[in-house]
Design brief:
The chain is of the alpha/beta class. Helices cover 33% and strands 19% of the residues. It has two domains: 2-167 and 308-340, Rossmann fold (3-Layer(aba) Sandwich), CATH 3.40.50.450; 171-305 and 359-370, Phosphofructokinase domain (Rossmann fold). A seven-stranded mixed beta sheet has the order 3-2-1-6-7-14-15, with helices on both faces. Bound molecules: 6-O-phosphono-beta-D-fructofuranose (F6P).
Length: 377
């Protein structure tokens, strides 16, 4: 067997651990393994290609077919490393590939046939596609075009349907909680309100888990549209009790009742909308309604970096080896999922296009409410 592994979309701590598990599990079966460089791009990129109109220069493809042979030596000592040794991109979806036109606009074209042909040219028997919702959708579409694919769910946002957890989430929550711990002392020293923006476009998992663990006073998530006057009341009630500071954690996709999320950039051809800026907006509104000095902070891509936690390493290693077992069983068009205590497989079709949002009646929300944390509702 000759298999390939790719990483697509935003990186997440634990990607390298998955790659290592895939490679070592495959090699033990006597298979050969190859890494697809920088998403799927290296598979079908030709030197004459201009590449996506993002200003990113095309990397020199040093390997035939854009595939890097991976053996035990290539994956030695990478379990604890953040990022991905293969590189990744959130652009260049082969089904909606952005091409710059002569008039300066960008058009989307379907280049998936080229990708499938490249896969066949390279004599690959199977592909392990590690990615979030976007990359898993591409994996599903490739499978429908005949490519034998097994998916591995990845995102720090923890919003992939069908799996209790995605690797990277636990690390991101730890990073955010650590930031909240540090912000507490400065907020208290200055009697300030600190508004901290964490990732989570459509689901508030990071905000909820870090906010509860990091003793936030207010947590705002996309699942619960907020009323700013209720947020201000909470801060003023604390003030009345002599607690002259407050910590507000807000997911980047949070929105007010009757309002829309704050975007940095609208979706364009080949890209998705970029969220960001809600913390600064809320901070200004809090100052206005409470008179309190307020500062905002965006944790941003810090949450995607660093060494994966033990939980994320274990999950990633389990996912990688489970993906190889799925290939051995010929169980394609599936994705490995964590359904504690086991790692199972489920059809890609059941996972894509869905978002695992925070259940409003769930235990973590209930715990937060019992502790007096406000959701601005
Ligand atoms: O991995 C998902 C995510 O972290 C989102 O929460 C965030 O909006 C997005 O990635 C940002 O990704 P990038 O800046 O790499 O496009």
């Amino acid at each position: 067997m000759r298999i390939a592994v790719s990483t697509g979309g935003g990186d997440a701590p634990g990607l390298n651990a998955v790659i290592r598990a895939v490679v070592l599990s495959a090699v033990r079966r006597g298979w050969t393994c190859h890494g697809v460089l920088r998403g799927y791009e290296s598979l079908y990129a030709r030197k004459k290609d201009l590449g996506p109109p993002s200003g990113i220069e095309r990397r020199k493809i040093a390997y035939p077919h854009g595939l890097k042979p991976l053996g035990p030596d290539e994956v030695r000592g990478i379990t604890h490393l953040g990022g991905t040794i293969l590189g990744t991109t959130s652009r260049g979806n082969p089904f909606r590939y952005p091409i710059a036109t002569v008039d300066g606009t960008t058009q989307e074209v379907d280049r998936s046939d080229e990708l499938v042909a490249a896969f066949r040219d390279a004599n690959l028997d199977a592909l392990v596609s590690i990615g979030g919702d976007g990359s898993l959708r591409i994996a599903y579409d490739l499978w429908r075009k005949g490519v034998p694919v097994v998916g591995v769910p990845k995102t720090i946002d923890n919003d992939v349907e069908g799996t209790e957890a995605t690797f990277g989430f636990d690390t991101a929550v730890s990073t955010a909680t650590d930031a909240l711990d540090k912000l507490h002392s400065t907020a208290e020293s200055h009697d300030r309100v600190m508004v901290v923006e964490v990732m989570g476009r459509h689901a508030g998992w990071i905000a909820l888990h870090s906010g509860l663990s990091g003793s936030a006073d207010v947590i705002l998530i996309p699942e619960i549209p907020y009323d700013l006057s209720i947020v201000c009341e909470k801060i003023q009630a604390r003030e009345a009790r002599g607690r002259r500071f407050a910590i507000v954690v807000v997911a980047e996709g949070a929105r007010p009742i009757h309002g829309a999320p704050v975007l940095l950039e609208e979706a364009q051809a080949g890209t998705v909308a970029r969220f960001g800026g809600v913390a600064a907006l809320i901070a200004a509104q809090i100052t206005k309604c409470t008179g309190k000095e307020t500062r905002s902070l965006v944790l941003g891509h810090l949450q995607r970096g660093g060494s994966p936690t033990t939980f994320d390493r274990l999950l990633a290693l389990r996912f990688g080896s489970a993906a190889v077992r799925a290939i051995a069983d010929g169980d394609f068009g599936t994705v490995v999922v964590y359904q504690p205590p086991v790692v199972n497989r489920t059809p890609l079709a059941d996972v894509i296009g869905r978002t695992k949002v925070v259940p409003l009646g769930g235990g973590v929300i209930m715990t937060a409410r019992s502790l007096g944390i406000s959701f601005g509702d």
